[in-house]
Amino acid sequence: MVNLVRGRRSFSCRLVKEAEIVRYSDDGEKFFMVSEEKIGVHEAEDAKVVCEIEGGKRVLCVAVGKSGLLFTGGEDRSITCWDSSTGKAAYSVEDAHSTRVKGLVVFENKHDGQTSETPNILASASSDGVIRIWDIRMIAKEKPSPLSEANTKSRLTCLAGSSMKRVVLDT
């Protein structure tokens, strides 16, 4: 880890395997390191391991949500939501896509400048070019359906997105 203010290394630690993906939580308290099917959850201050998550098949994308939620997608074509403090799966969408999941984005709920603690919308992209939008509240159901779907007819390798502020006007 590098202290960007001082421009020097703040600490280092030995890794069993090189990480393919590294993401930080929104509050900067934790970071997540993905190596194939394993996800290490670490405290940002000292890299202490909070928990290790075994994802089954290879994890190809990660999206960090609020309230300690971590969303993963990968070779198993599923989307899984993990509790990052315990390492246990909160819920999962089996066969969310027909091919591997290559990108995930969690959108914050913004209404009149206020941000909700729990996000409602998740976007996922697969390597066959399909992008799906999910209502996270419905994912807890047995077989949720996406809210929307678009086929880009391209081979997707990642997905990026941004939350927009929603404004309600009185007329």
UniProtKB/TrEMBL annotation:
GO cellular component terms, A-Z: Cul4-RING E3 ubiquitin ligase complex
Superkingdom of the organism of origin: Eukaryota
WD repeat segments: 69-92, 116-137
Keywords: Repeat, WD repeat
PROSITE patterns per UniProt: WD_REPEATS_1, WD_REPEATS_2
Pfam families: WD40
This protein's name: Uncharacterized protein
